[in-house]
TrEMBL record:
NCBIfam families: rRNA_methyl_3. Belongs to the class IV-like SAM-binding methyltransferase superfamily. RNA methyltransferase TrmH family. Its EC number is 2.1.1.-. GO terms for cellular component: cytosol. One of its GO terms (molecular function) is RNA methyltransferase activity. Coiled coil: none annotated. This is SpoU rRNA methylase family protein. It comes from Streptococcus pseudoporcinus.
Amino acid sequence: MKENNMIETNDMVYGVHAVTESLRANTGNKLYIQEDLRGKNVDMIKDLARDKKVSISWAPKKTLSDMTEGAVHQGFVLRVSAFAYSELETLIVKAEKVENPLILILDGLTDPHNFGSILRTADATKVSGVIIPKHRAVGVTPVVAKTSTGAVEHVPIARVTNLSQALDKLKEAGFWIFGTDMDGTPVQKWNTSGKLALIIGSEGKGISTNIKKQVDEMITIPMGGHVQSLNAGVAAAVLMYEVFRHKL
């Protein structure tokens, strides 16, 4: 049966990996599959949806493209429940149960592709959670979910009204707060033992001035080329892996 109903972009995910992980996490409500699509991905996702009792509709490719505003959907669009953010206190308590936990704080990140990429690396490096501000920053969107290739379903994300107060709570719990800056401790000399919280600044402005005042130590990534900075997603990945490799 063909289905031409449109759905809000904030209530869906698309692409093979994002749809698969959302179905596994039981957040899917209705699955749309491109009507002429065939292959193992179709069989796998269709079986998973049926197992999760998610209704399936077949739709033309153009309909799916309209639904995703021209994004690469790979023939799969899933209507999902509103993303369930973690409570900050819950995130901290769970992180404290991990040896040498790392919590990531994103200060004003606005690019959904960077956010999704960071979540993907966070999952790979066993980051305990991510904290984002509620205002003037990107939240979990379909683009974030797709770029994260499903990691959004596995990394706890807390969305807070006041980032400064969140840092105070982290300090009360015994976390050391680190930031990124051109003039800081070289990453290879970074002491990554203990409870760590790492702030990644926005793409254009970096870490906010008021947030910088709460940082215990700045970390810098040495570079030898002509470019003097990395984008937020790449810088975050380098630093997350630096912490992760000391746990191996």
